[in-house]
Amino acid sequence: MDLLVRARHADDLPVLVELLSAQQAGSSYPIRWPLPIPTVDFLVRPTERRAWVAESAGAVVGHVTVAHVDEPLVPLFAPALGSAPMGMISVLFTAEAWRGLGVGGTLLDTAVAWIRVQGEVPVLDVVPTHDTALTIYQRRGWVEVGRARFVWLPGNLPEVLLMALPPYQPNAASVDS
Hints:
By secondary structure, the chain is an alpha+beta fold. The protein has helices at 13-27, 39-43, 74-81, 103-117, 131-139, 172-176, and strands spanning 4-7, 48-56, 59-67, 86-94, 121-126, 143-148, 160-164.
């Protein structure tokens, strides 16, 4: 597989909107569909720091971003991570035809490497019913550090898992507990 990971460009957005829409029925990502906001606003968020796409033979086949952790989330990660600086993996998806081929893992590795270079702990949130994503994260060493219920989460779904990728320096209080 010939795969290139590169910075996302503005002209990638129409294709990414189509890819996200096309893969949603199979992945249930994002949970709320149709989105209550324009899809491009879901892809490009105010907290975004970096964004990449994966492409093969000139076609975009996946996407990931790194974002600042939203202020309301910081205290939810704090019991495990203390005041460690964090980088949030966000908006990670692949085209339906490219699922299971390592594209998502490659994008995840790219984002994690960037976060680590910044001296931060990689964090993310995942709906536990997203079995494939959760399995990938767990196999790569991500650990659950908390749970939360967000306003966008339908009441019939379990709380969202908050995950971090060790090594990180846990909060001293949580070690003693």
